[in-house]
């Protein structure tokens, strides 16, 4: 398993990927997806889901990866469903402990942000004021720790 998911996720963001793509694409060695598929799948979740400023894209990516590694297919029980939802709530709580919320608009408090569909230009100034790299880092660190402590039973998924 890649031990540099956090640095790769941060580099992905610095290279222009949205927050969800940055995290999701950093874990392709774990999910089995190729980078292009990972980027396409997670592309809709940036900016709190299409820049609507809802759930932070880094958290959405974390939850998607958890679903791929630990989620339910056909024929699950209510107990298994509850167990998986507990897992997702645990991951969200780990993120909240560092940043108070998983909601994009609240994470960006104090910044003039819009929900317009047009992405902001990735300039030097953008990276100076945007806190998103911290959220990318946190989500990747949380997920790495969780996977290390809870090895997936099914292993890699084929994308």
Walk me through the structure.
With 159 residues, this protein is mostly helical. The chain has one domain (5-149). The chain is 62% helix and 0% strand. It has ten helices and no strands. It has helices at residues 5-14, 19-26, 28-31, 35-42, 46-49, 57-70, 78-99, 104-107, 124-129, 132-149. Helix 2 runs parallel beside helix 6. The longest helix has 22 residues, at 78-99. The protein is globular. 33% of the residues are buried. The model has no long low-confidence stretch (mean pLDDT 92).
Rg for CA atoms:
15 Å
What multimeric state do the chains show? single chain
Strand content: under 5%
N-to-C series of helices and strands: HHHHHHHHHH
Largest beta-sheet characterization: none
Helical percent range? 55-70%
Coarse morphology: globular
The tally of domains stands at 1
Q: How many strand segments?
A: 0
Which consecutive residue ranges, at least 5 long each, have pLDDT under 50?
none
**Secondary structural class:** mainly alpha
First-residue to last-residue Cα separation: 17 Å
């Amino acid at each position: 398993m890649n031990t540099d998911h956090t640095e790769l996720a941060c580099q992905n963001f610095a290279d222009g990927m949205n927050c969800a793509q940055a995290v999701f694409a950093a874990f392709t060695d774990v999910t089995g997806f190729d980078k292009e598929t990972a980027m396409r799948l997670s592309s809709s979740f940036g900016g709190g889901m299409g820049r609507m400023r809802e759930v932070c894209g880094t958290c959405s990516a974390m939850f998607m990866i958890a679903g791929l590694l630990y989620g339910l297919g056909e024929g699950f029980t209510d107990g298994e469903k509850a167990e998986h939802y507990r897992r997702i709530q645990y991951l969200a709580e780990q993120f909240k402990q560092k940043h108070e919320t998983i909601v994009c608009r609240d994470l960006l408090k104090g910044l003039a942000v819009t929900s317009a569909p047009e992405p902001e230009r990735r300039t030097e100034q953008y990276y100076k004021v945007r806190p998103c790299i911290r959220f990318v880092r946190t989500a990747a660190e949380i997920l790495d720790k969780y996977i290390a402590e809870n090895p997936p039973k099914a292993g890699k998924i084929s994308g």
